[in-house]
Specification:
single chain; five-stranded mixed beta sheet; four-stranded mixed beta sheet
Amino acid sequence: MKMPNGISVIGTGSYMPPTVVLNNYFDRYGSSDEWIYSHLGIKERRYAAATGLATSDLAAEACRQAIENAGLSCSDIDLVIVATITPDRATPSTACKVLHQLDIHDCPAFDISAACAGFIYSTFIAQQFILAGNCMNALLIGADTMFSTLANKHSRDGVYWGDGAGAIVLSRVGKDSGGFIHTNISACGDAIDEVTVIGGCSEHPVSQEVVDDKSHYITMDGRAVFRSAIQIIPLIVKQVLKEAGMTLSDIHHVIPHQPAKKMIVQALESAEVPLEKTYFNMDKYANTSSATIPITLDEVHRAGKLMAGDNILFATIGAGWVWGASILKWSMN
């Protein structure tokens, strides 16, 4: 069995904007609360733009909570990574805007784009920085304003998405105390059209035509997503366990990405993951993309459900396809 690498979570935080959009909002667009909840497991989602909040605003508040939870100050942070596909601007990075809001100076800061797998990707990247001795305390944020910026709110296609941010502080704690046991990230690039935003970037720059045909909104082939998720998630769960030299009996908690409850339940059942070990919160927040896993981790941590020494399994799949899974031995009390 692989041993923890001594790089672990020492603080968590999350922030959801205050405006709640219930399922009945979509009655006028041909959907219903009954259909959305029975098919997707969603009851409501949060809406950042309703109160003038951008992705960096959500991220910065989640960061403040995580830094306080870690018992640190902003001056202790020496790496900031924001996983997002809904940046405030094309440039500068949302990470730079988070630095500005937190008054953090003179440290590496950048965004990564890996859709719903972005947060797992960011944890793997940060581990390499820490292992190389290039930083001590990494601030990692999954933040997306999917409902505010990419969802077509005047269509039933908007039902899937929500806004939110989650953050962690990653630091050395000593191998005996815990840390990541194994992380596996990968991609295939074979599904670039299944979940996509075509308009507004270099392939189809902003134009009146883009606005008129609504190609600046996110589109999704639901059947293709379902088929791929129920195939890939069981594979990556089994793979990361095998590579770590562990079995599901060694896992105490499972925190998956949550695009739709039926989908993730079927995928986890295919992997023989006990659902009683699995945490869901998509009923409250819908799909917040890269923010889903860190938001859930923060909620589970603050609810007192994690004990030092517990093993947590994370698994996710995102547009492209990109995917990742990791196992963390929890070190906090």
